[in-house]
Amino acid sequence: MRRVLGFLALLAAPVTARAEPPSIPVMVLGTYHFGNPGLDVVNAKAEDVTTLARQHELAALADALAAFRPTKVMVEAETAGPDFDYTAYHSFKPADLAAKRSERVQIGFRVAHQLGLTRVVGIDETGEVGNVDYYPFDKVQDWAKAHHREADLAATFDSMKGKVAEFEARQKRESIPSLLHFFNNPAYIAQDNRAYTAMLRFGDDHNQPGAALNGMWMMRNAKIFAKLAQVARPGDRVLVIYGAGHGFWLRQLAATTPGFRLEDVEPYLAKAVKRLGR
Questions:
Q1: Alpha-carbon gap, residue 108 to 122, rounded angstroms
Q2: Taking a C-beta distance cutoff of 8 angstroms, is the pair 238, 26 a contact?
């Protein structure tokens, strides 16, 4: 009886919880591709970001993002582990901003340099190493053609094509921070992800190319975030600058991975828009 009472007393005793370190904030800035690489199924044509007017806008954007006080800036570049150091940053000079259009340089290097950071981290996963296809769209196309569903497949991209046309028209009248606000609002992020999940309809009991595409796309983003998690340390504040198409999954992973929390980028973009007046 004494043993039972002693065990019950032990259960009733207050438990001292081990203090967990504060979660690492991760802020994801989804961007369009400034350099027009043309690698997506639906591509937006970007205007020249090296003009004086656009450089003024990018300076305002950098000031706003710097207010987040990131200790690590991570960009869409594939680099070697374990530290995933993007060595191109080591030779960066402010004069490069007048010639190099990539968002990695124009936003990532600019912000890192402004804050005095000694390195930029490249966390991309392209599949070139190991010859992995993270976007097997050709398999979806083949299935659609074999099953006379090509028109249905084309229709899945109609809304995204409309958004791209809208973006290209907005470039004529809006600043870069305003354009990025377009790519980072919840409605756009949800619609962009539906372009992937809409392909779940393409397949049958023996062949599921649409499901396979979604699985591989999620895997790529999981590997990207895994690299982030392997480099981030307690006390860090992480700014991720990535193609907007990755925004849904990178935000989901930042919000749900233990030890991390998602920071909303919209207030920072709104601050830059307000400063510029457009």
A1: 10
A2: yes
Contacts of 92 (CB under 8 A, 6+ apart): 105, 109, 113
* Phi and psi angles of residue 73, each rounded to the nearest 5 degrees, phi first: -110, 125
**Backbone φ, ψ for residue 100 (5° rounding):** -100, 120
pLDDT tens digit string along 209-264? 999 999 999 999 999 999 999 999 999 999 999 999 999 999 999 999 999 999 99
pLDDT tens digits, 164-211: 888 889 999 999 999 999 999 999 999 889 999 999 999 999 899 999
> What's the Cα-to-Cα distance from 219 to each of 31, 77, 126, 135, 191, rounded to whole Å?
21, 17, 11, 10, 20
How many contiguous H segments (helices) and E segments (strands) does the chain have? Answer: 12, 5
- Tokens standing for 4? 């039972």
State the angle between helix axes of 52-66 and 176-184 in degrees (0 to 180), rounded to the nearest 10. 50
- DSSP secondary structure string for all residues of 16-42: -PPPPPPPEEEEEEEE--TT----SSS
**Separation of alpha carbons 251 and 224, rounded Å:** 12
